[in-house]
Amino acid sequence: MNLRLIRFLRIANKLSIKFHLGRTIGNLLFGIFNTKKSSKWTKGDSNSFLDSLHKDVESSALCENEVVEPTVDLQIIVPVYKVEKFLDGCLQSILNQKTDYTFKVVAVNDGSPDRSGEILEKYRDDDRVIVISQENRGLSGARNTGLRTIFGKYVGFLDSDDELAPGAIQAWLDAAYKNDADIVDGSFRRMTTDGELRGGFVHTSDKSNSGFVWTRIYKPYLFQNVHFPERYWFEDSVIGLIMPHAGKYVAIKDYVYHYRVNPASIMHTFKGNPKSLDALYVTRSLMKDASTLDYIDFNSDWTIDFFLRQFQYDWHRTHTLGEEVEDAVFDVTKKLLLQYFPEKHTSSKQFMNLEKSLRNNDFNLYRRECCYM
């Protein structure tokens, strides 16, 4: 079954949902048109094939950060690289916050070749800003430098081409202290490169197993032994090691973040790039790390559903590399499911068919279910 037909079936499924027929029509059409297709890699080495296209750096999220006696309410980590156009706006959006709480910014110049380092020098005299310079290690490496010593009662992240929404710190910390929350997750708005605010996302639930690390603030213990795996794209997937450890998660409808939609960013340019295989590699790395952490239960509904969602993300980020690669990703994904969840099954209707496709080696069903996302 070709990808065009699978996309057609995805549209059919959406129409069936619109007209309150659930997934009935989509499943019926798929049953008519589908001829089960097994992975060609059943007897081949899919890992070696993918490695020949882009090698897995085998980075880990496990670490030892220092958590010290807090000196401020909120520590905000800002990785800085090639953002001279937006850096002042980013930092001013923090420093101009009207709040009853104390905060400090840790700005990490990640070997930026433009004027970003020069701009940061202007902020060294502000006792609310700590400036650190290092050789380039990438986004994860810069964030990790800011995490080495955690001195805030809560810690959060702001990418240096984005901005905090007015009132963000007050809204975050009001909810944090009121609920003694381990994580407070806020809503966000999208922003053009010219600073115009567009649509966004508003939380309507206090439960989430996905999302962005930058809409949230965290109690320090959540990052004491976990940081961002370095040299990978899609490093925010590390949230899968953090959420199960959190005692209380609170979502607020307040806008806390303005996310700049940058056409040149990885999120808009990864398609067709072999490095997009990092999506699969970081998922595999996180599963390995998770298996060593005593607070992550591979027999829980949350864990299997999180990684099934990750498998969908992996397909979306890699399928444009061609069907041979898509098939190899499917084979590796299937083996990961069988390795870490040999007996545990999802109870979510959203993921049941995806799990079925992997356990039954049904490549076409896998593609269909990933398209549904």
Task: Detail the topology: elements first, then pairings.
Elements: H1 3-18, H2 24-33, H3 46-53, E1 66-80, H4 87-95, E2 103-110, H5 116-121, E3 129-134, H6 138-147, E4 149-157, E5 163-164, H7 168-179, E6 183-191, E7 197-201, E8 216-218, H8 239-242, E9 249-260, H9 266-269, H10 278-290, H11 301-318, H12 323-340, H13 349-359, H14 363-372
Helix pairs in contact: 1-2, 1-14, 3-12, 10-11, 11-12, 11-14, 13-14
Question: What report would you give on this structure?
Answer:
With 373 residues, the protein is an alpha/beta fold. Helix content is 40%, strand content 18%. Strands 1, 2, 3, 4, 5, 6, 7, 8 and 9 form a nine-stranded mixed beta sheet that branches.
In short:
The protein is of the alpha/beta class and 373 residues long. The protein is built from 14 helices and 9 strands.
What key attributes describe this structure?
373 residues; 40% helix; 9-stranded mixed sheet; 14 helices; alpha/beta; 9 strands; globular
